[in-house]
Amino acid sequence: MRKVKWGVLGVAKIATEKVIPAMQRGERCEVAALASRDLSRAAAAAKSLGISKAYGSYEALLYDSDIEAIYNPLPNELHAEWSARALAAGKHVLCEKPIALDAAEAEKLIAARDASGKLAAEAFMVRFHPQWRCAREIVRSGEIGDVGAIQTMFAYRLLDPANVRNRPPGGGALYDIGCYAILTARYIFGAEPTRVVASLDIDPDFGTDRLASALIEFPGGRHLTFSAATQLSGQQRVTIAGTAGRIEIPIPFNAPIDRPTKIAVDSGADLVGGGARAEEFAVCDQYTLQGDAFSRAVLGEAPFDYPLEDALANMRVIDACFRSGRSGGWEKV
Question: Of 2, 32, 54, 120, which is the most buried if we count CB atoms within 10 A?
Answer without folding.
Answer: 120
